[in-house]
Every structure is written in C-alpha cells, then in structure tokens.
Amino acid sequence: MPSVIQSTPRADGYRMPAEWEAHAGCWMLWPQRPDTWRQGGKPAQRAFVEAARQISRFERVTMGVNRDQYENARALLPANVRVVELSNNDAWMRDCGATFVVNDSGGLRGIDWRFNAWGGLRKMMYFPWDQDDLVATKMLEIESLDRYHAPLVMEGGSIHVDGQGTLLTTEQCLLHPNRNPGLAQADIEKRLSEYLGVDKIIWLPRGVFEDETDGHVDNLCCFARPGVVALTWTDDRSDPQYERSAEAYDALMSARDARGRSLSVHKIHQPAPLTMTKAEAEGLDVVGSAFSRPAGERLAGSYINFYIANGGIILPQFDDRHDEAARRKIAELFPQHKIIGISSREILLGGGNIHCITQQQPAGRA
Ligand code: KQY
What CATH number has the domain bearing residue 337? Predict the structure, then answer.
C-alpha cells in the first residue's frame, strides 16, 4: 500500500534525477477545455496525439483523460499509449503532476506539490483547479509509489535540475506573490533543497516575455548535461526578450554549480516573434473572468521547451526560419539522442509547449 511519508526526500537519501537519466515512462493529460484550446480542443488534441506518438517510440506514455473524453482519446491515440481515466481541469502535466525522486538503490518516490493554477484567484487562469491538484496523488497511487506532500506552491515547469545537486529557476516565478507570499527566498530555497535534494540554486531573473506562468524556467533555459545549459536567445536588441535573455546569460556566466563548475552556455535563437491570429483567438470560448487570449498577443515561443525521452528529444517547431538551426544546435548538445521536431503551435496557443505537457517518471521501483 503506498503511503504518505512525513520526512523529506533529502533526509531519506532521495534526489530529483536529471531529465536525461533513464525513464520508466512519460505522463501526459488530454486537452479539452474550450477556453484554453481553440475549436473545442480538436487541433490541440491532434498535436498532443503527435507528441504522444513520438515519445512512445522511446518510452511508455500514459495519457490521463477526463471521463467524457475517454473514448475519444482512446480512439485517437496509438495503441501503445496507455490511456487512464484521470480527472483534470487542464492539460499541463508538467505543472500539476508529481515530481519523482530516486535513491542510490533504485528506489523511486513521488512529490506532490501544492498547485494553485499559477496564481490562484489572484491570476484567475481558470477556476476551479481542484482536480489538477489531485493529479499527482492519483499518478502515484496508480504506480503504487510512496509520496511526500511538499509545503510549497510550485509547478514542475518552474525548475530544472542537473541531477548532481544544482537547480535552475527564475526569481520572477518562484518569488512571485502568486505562489508563496508568506515565504522568504531563503525559506523557498530550504524547501527546494529538502524535497529535491539539491545543494545549489541558480536564480535567473526573468523568464520568457509574455510567458503566462510568471516566467517558468523550462521555457527559458535548461541543462543539456551537468555544467552545460541551453538558453533561449535573440540577437534583436529591440525585442523585449533581448534584455531578459541577456540578464539570464550574465547570471549563468557568473554562476558556479553544486560541484563548483562554471557553466558553458549555449544560445538557441528563438523563433521570430509569434502572435495569436484573429482566427485563433475567435476559436476560443469566453468563460467568465478567466484568462483572456486576444488576437495579436505575443506568444512565448521558445525551442527550449523540449522533452528528453530515453534516447530521443521531442523538439518544438514553429514553421519558422530558426527551426533548422535549433534542431542542429540541440543535436550537437545531445549527440546520443535522436532529434524529433514536431509542429507545436497549437500547444503554444494554450500557453506552454512540449515540456509543459509532459512529466517523466524515472526508472526505479516502489
Ligand atoms: O509552461 C507551462 N509549464 C504550462 C503553461 C500553462 C499555461 C496555462 N494556460
């Protein structure tokens, strides 16, 4: 019987592994809400099917689906994708799903963070988010894994780790009053360190321009291996992203990781500025006071928002002139991985990208 553990992962010898360490599989949630996903979610569902299909070439994929979409999702997804009924309010598995931790004997446990849909009633991305907040518990019950309840409002997209004690995040996100207004930076660091087993936190100032998550790091910067990071970039000094990427670059160049290494920083040029079209905006249902996505609004497009599967990288592509350069650069950074680009504009229209809709489950046993 899986249980709730009262100690912390660090006290028990557990740590969060890097995304490139071996996976048992990948978790996703099925998109359907019509105020996030245009045309009743149909174009997004096709994009999620393609992401699941490609990831399932490398590892098992589990798709969590609300009751009313179960048959539709089962019919559209490839047979090798496991489809389970898993109630949810939206499809951001990275953010509401469990974070997994491992120990040196192959043990695997889960962390259930507090989830408030990126800012609760202050932000009103959508309401309610009660089913999203139960997703982590349900995943861990399905897998018979013990879990920790972490006393921190946080989403999986707001952190990246190198598996060797270093964590990347942004001040814009994790210090934002939308999440833990009663906690000081030192309190947040202590909780990250206790629950993820990290010793060094590198704070980057801000995330990607117009990123509705308050600047998740997973759209801005990630590790490619210990000591090596990829950073979204633009050469256009008049672009509002320029200053954000430049200040992140400076912070990274002056940082040392948990093992005392300086970082090698690789710039990945962002797609040319992308905006929501009138037709796309008109495809969204208007729901009360929920978050609005007007035509002309800048989309937070970035190639950094990729998923690392066992032996493969699933990389966002935008039908943009920078797509090919991003593929080449990621291939150089991950020479052992096959790079699969998928068209991800429909996911971006909902406010995230491939990393945001996936959550890796490391290899390990209960
Ligand atoms: O970036 C992510 N990890 C999720 C994006 C969520 C956007 C909510 N509409």
Answer: 3.75.10.10
